Amino acid sequence: MGCLLSKESDIKSSSLNKESSIKDSTHSSASHLRSKTHSEKFETKNKFDSKKEKDAQKVGDSEHIGAQTFSFKELAAATKNFRAECCIGEGGFGKVYKGFLESGQVVAIKQLDRSGLQGNREFLVEVLMLSLLHHSNLVNLVGYCADGDQRLLVYEFMPLGSLEDHLYDVHDKEPLDWNTRMKIAAGAARGLEYLHDKANPPVIYRDLKSSNILLDHGFHPKLSDFGLAKLGPVGDKTHVSTRVMGTYGYCAPEYAMTGQLTLKSDVYSFGVVLLELITGRKAIDNTRATGEHNLVAWARPLFKDRRKFPQMVDPLLQGRYPTRGLYQALAVAAMCLQEQATHRPLIGDVVTALTYLSSQTYDPGAHSVHSKRFGSPVLGKEKDRKGNDRLEESGSNKATHQGGLRSPQYQGSPKMQAKDHLRIQESAITNSHREQEGSGRRG
């Protein structure tokens, strides 16, 4: 697999017109990766934690390639000849249909646009990636079809659609409540953590956005669409150079400008998604007023004043959110959206913070209790004037600028460590704003 993405020209020149050639390429690339990963020594953080992730499989072990092969005739029958009423979505590379296999399994079938070699390469990359990567927060690839010039991917069916549907197409749906939003954020972050820290070598997702986060029963999130995924840098390399791809509004600034892709590029994209969850605003929305088209550009000045945080909340929540939880979630988003990639946290630290936030179940019925404990927006203003409620930096809780956040080095409960992560993030936000203001005055 290391050879797979580093030698794209070899893949392009290989025959993609026969089902057997696809399968051979998959197994061959997996074997290359297995020998590569066995010969190189990677950092401890890139090893699998079998106790925490029972379903994690070593990337490159060809024995775990379990994707089925389907004929075009089988998939046509599953979708009633790709009837319009079976179409459940349409992306940049083709339409997605709901289908029923002969076994009775309900699946989602993506039929790639047959025009252009681009789709062929991404088809192969996705088959390889999802055949070798397995996690509860990644969509499961059931199989694929490479009949003649037909390219189709068969996934497990996600009954609740995409996160994008539930944030912006709510005419016939209940708006997502605060607890569900934090649950989705934490689950999506865990999927990204698997790609960055558990896959070996690490994988850069490169296309994280709300439409690519699919929802299973109980709003369990799964990352989907891996056609743009790339193997991350290993050894002493700091980045992967590639042409800029992805979705406008989600791309990290350094990647958009230079084509230099890192794991922190994904962290930025995650920050945009988290901000969408909190605000209910699209990453790019040209229907809004001037100055509010770009979500991140709109949010940056608001991050500097916590008294304005309530203005950022999705109106569909109707005030039903924990004040302190909002401050902490926005602190996480702001850290992920730092313009300097080295200032952004590692995804593992984001998972720790969001797992804690998602565990703090908010009860709308106890809203008055939360208001008294954490302070209403009005009380918050009073406290800010008195200087008692500011996000201050203290002692060993300082955030470093070299690698984002660092886990506290002490023996404590996971919950206490998560709280410390959040305190560090809040401190880092304040310090970042102070530095910006100071540089502005000096200028």
From TrEMBL:
Residues 82-357 form the Protein kinase domain. Residues 37-62, 380-395, 432-443 have a biased composition (Basic and acidic residues). One of its GO terms (molecular function) is protein serine/threonine kinase activity. It is found in: Cell membrane. Residues 1-62, 362-443 are annotated as: Disordered. Keywords: ATP-binding, Cell membrane, Kinase, Lipoprotein, Membrane, Nucleotide-binding, Serine/threonine-protein kinase, Transferase. InterPro entries: Kinase-like_dom_sf (IPR011009), Prot_kinase_dom (IPR000719), Protein_kinase_ATP_BS (IPR017441), Ser/Thr_kinase_AS (IPR008271). One of its GO terms (cellular component) is plasma membrane. It is a lipid-anchor. The keyword Repeat does not apply. It comes from the Eukaryota. Belongs to the protein kinase superfamily. This is non-specific serine/threonine protein kinase.
